[in-house]
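Example 3.2
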Amino acid sequence: MPVGYAISYAVGNVKFTALGDRVLVKEDDFRSGYDCTACNKSGRVTCAACGGSGKSKVVTHAKCSDCGGAGNVACAACNGKGALLYIPENSERRPTSGEIVSLGPDCTKLSLGQSVIYSNFAGHAMDIDNIVLRILHESEIYLIVDGHLEMSRLRSKSDVTTI
């Protein structure tokens, strides 16, 4: 991106444009590492008896007796909690990674759409319509991340490579 050109980001009908060397980052969602992978944190899975239709396969025009017509049942892996260990919302730490959604005209090292890592206390965070935006200086970005690393899935040191 050429210097002197700013890119805007819209949330609903509100548009944000970073100025100077500022970067607007959309924070990643909080993940505890204990989230249930069987139900993808929802606590519910598709009913096996009706295949998610909510209708009985035995009796015509009747609700499925396993799910009560809902089409889904509580996840057996997490007992419907969505996680193996529940962390209250007020105890969740703010994520320190996100995606760049707007760049000021003086930003020279970063580009739109890059995944980045920054300090937990850097910049200013704003919650807008369940989207968390963080305003940072370009110099407050620690790392650019290529790909996606989920630490809970790494099995051993052999899964980590040095380039």
